[in-house]
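Exercise: predict the fold of this chain.
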Amino acid sequence: MEIQITGQPWLNNVDNPYISTNSPSLLNQRVVSLFRTGTKEWDMEIIKDIFDTRDQHYIANTRVEQDLNKDTLDWKLDNSGQNSTKHVQIDNIYPVCHEEAESVFHSLVQCKAATLGWQIHNPNISTNETMEFAEWLDRNLSGQPTQATAKIITLCWSIWRARNDLWTAAQGRYTGAPLRSPIAGDCAIYWAKPQQDEVKINADAAVFDNQGSGTGLVVRNHASHMLSAKTTCFSEVMNPTLAEALAIKEALSWAKEWTENTITIESDCLVVIQLIRSATSLRSRLGKVIMECRTLVRELNNVRLYFIKRSSNMSAHKLAHVSHMYPDRVFDWGYISVNVKSCISNELLE
């Protein structure tokens, strides 16, 4: 049996044993994903990053029974809220290779990805014999000069960071280093007009407290004239990275109206741009949106995506932040917000 984080009564709270945090990243995720790797202990760093204060308190006070003979957890509440014991089978498969149970040793040494890293670093380092990670590390550090020791520790840290980046991306909140290096055309500080017979769409998103989320798109041509602008609103308060991905998806969908032109789409969310460019597969709502963006890019065949600095994306930024006041609207120059119009004019002067 698999206990889901949302929709099932597993918190240590008789009155309301359900999670109250409203986040799309928690959908279809299991409670076991909240444990520290290789343990049955709560990973409070992740929990504090995802859950509201109320849920943090009750998760921290939900006791996990440690049972060395059976791979189970004991819950003290059944679906009716009455005291009982529920035994739950844990599926603790390592999310990088999906082949073995997750443990510190497997994550850092015996996973195929980790093993390849060690072979490149030092073919003499053994990854075949299974043992506790502390013992393996002690063996490989023993007698090593300072520089070699530093390289081994650094590679361990890099493998672990890559594992955490993958996990957080799957939760819809990727915060790690870029998946690939920026390409030529990325990182512009000032807005620049597109080339002849090209159009440029700037995209941004905003998340409002208790008012949902919104996106803002601004389209301009090679003469810097605004062809159109558009807002889209969503009723849910979503993860900012997901909102940025939806903004780019809206831009790609809207780009079909200018298929006779080469289209440039710019966003100030590096993570989403890098995910779209990569082949990374994410089993989350964010992953679904990223896949839809990749499909649109292939279908359009004349679109380029670039990451730019916030300073060169201010018109879309301003529009996204007033999208809840002008929901699901398309504007021409005469009807767009004065603040947004001023921002577009200022970008032309820079």
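Check your answer against the key: The beta strands are 72-77, 83-89, 198-208, 212-221, 226-234, 262-267, 303-307, 330-331.
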